[in-house]
Amino acid sequence: MGLVLLYTGNGKGKTTAALGLVLRAVGHGYRVVIGHLMKTLIYRGEYVGEYLAIKRFLSDYVDVYSLDPDQHLTPRDVLTMAVNRAREVKPFLLILDEVNNAVAANYLSASEVIEAIKSLPPEVNVVLTGRDAPREFLEFADLVTVMEPVKHYFDRGVVGIKGLEW
């Protein structure tokens, strides 16, 4: 089994940190699979910036799965699709974005996510993101980083900045 990295906490930057690893991995020619378990790829009627960049520059290396209201996909569906693709292509990196939130909201159990990770080929490293990481993930992960807010522009009413938030 590869390494398991966990980014959690109430601060901004968990998904951003995971996407930084995507750039690093692709820069070395490695494949990546991303599953956005609690997000769609569209915000305010537009694709989110990370998806546009992946589609434009990295599509030969990165597969992306996300919630799709038109297809009535659930977080479990996205987890299954991303894990199955990772088993098939054996990427260097599998990102399960917002998986902590999916577990906290009872869409998935921590044990089923851990079992899915254990079923991956040994060369696949996994990144788990989202607030409220379950205790099981904290114990299971090889690296745990907790993002804590000190100051945030949300507190001044500044929200949804294109290019910073989406």
Quick summary of this structure?
By secondary structure, the chain is an alpha/beta fold. It contains six helices and eight strands; from the N terminus they run βαβββαβαβααβαβ.
Describe this structure in words.
It is a single chain. With 166 residues, the protein is an alpha/beta fold. Helices cover 36% and strands 20% of the residues. The chain contains 6 helices and 8 strands, in the order βαβββαβαβααβαβ. It has helices at 14-27, 49-58, 75-89, 99-104, 110-118, 135-140, and strands at 4-8, 32-36, 42-43, 46-47, 62-66, 93-97, 125-129, 143-146. The chain has a 6-stranded parallel sheet, with helices on both faces. Strands 3-4 form a two-stranded antiparallel ribbon. A hairpin with a 2-residue loop joins strand 3 and strand 4. It is globular.
Write the layout of secondary structure elements.
Blueprint: E1 4-8, H1 14-27, E2 32-36, E3 42-43, E4 46-47, H2 49-58, E5 62-66, H3 75-89, E6 93-97, H4 99-104, H5 110-118, E7 125-129, H6 135-140, E8 143-146
Parallel strand pairs: 1-7, 1-8, 2-5, 2-6, 6-7
Antiparallel strand pairs: 3-4
